[in-house]
Predict the structure.
Amino acid sequence: MDIGKSGSKAPATALSKSRLRREIARHRSVYLLALIPLIYYIIFKYVPIWNAQIAFKDFMARKGVLGSEWIGLENFRTFINSFYFWSLIRNTVMYSVGKILISLPLSIILSICIYECTRPALRKVVQTLAYLPHFLSWVIMYGILLALLAPGDGVVNDLIKLLGGHPVDFLSNVKTFPWVVLFSDAWKEMGWSAIIFIAALMGIDVSLFEAAMVEGANSWQRVRYITIPAILPVIVTVLILKLGTILDAGFNQIFMLYSPQVYSVGDIIDTWVYRQGLLEFEFGLATAVGLFKGVFGMVLVLLANWLSRKLTESSLF
């Protein structure tokens, strides 16, 4: 009996393998497309994990990763005991949370407005104008912001002077700089972020809106009772993923916009790591801070996912 059973399993296994090979050959173009991001993540995300051990070493380039002296948690203690630690954490969290609180609602509102628009030509124009800033680098965005906010001849300051006010140096003022960072990020990214919500809106059953209109529901009531509940799982998923990068406040943006005058409110973990790691050659310290960010982000994702599953019955995993 045992021999018979094992003999019947062998052809079944061979058949399943043959079917798998046929399916792979049939959809080979899809697998080739998936291979590109897979290779990217292996090279730039997983292979560097090996070098993360320098966070626990007094790394010396001439000695290499394995030859450098092991110092345990000393790099982490150096960062936590640093004079700038709390200001860096404060600024980083402030920008990260602020971007979520501003950009996420604006992205949802924009997606709903585009979805509800009944004029195809207007919808296309708004979509194009909203998506365009995402494809501009922060170098170009800095030039645009400088033209708008420059204290001498910026468009905004020209309007302020026209109304009898005094010009404001928005990019060098500690009171205005954080707002420039938050709203410039929202301007640049909310159109691109809205794509996810537009895709979710397209999946809503149209008959729900038709039934609501028959019952006399106005536009606001349809949005409140149909649209928002329908895309709530997507909103929760996006929010959880953003919480995982809560300590990534946007290095490219801050690096282009800030100056020594606004270090007190503009310096974040990534800019500090840049100065310590690349300019001061403290590679072990910089790696330790990066590892700290990764672990902290993972804990936040797990916690947010657990709370979401408990409170809304919707979660990422």
Remarks:
- The CA atoms of residues 1 and 7 lie 10 Å apart.
- Confidence is low (pLDDT under 50) at residues 1-5.
- The radius of gyration is 26 Å.
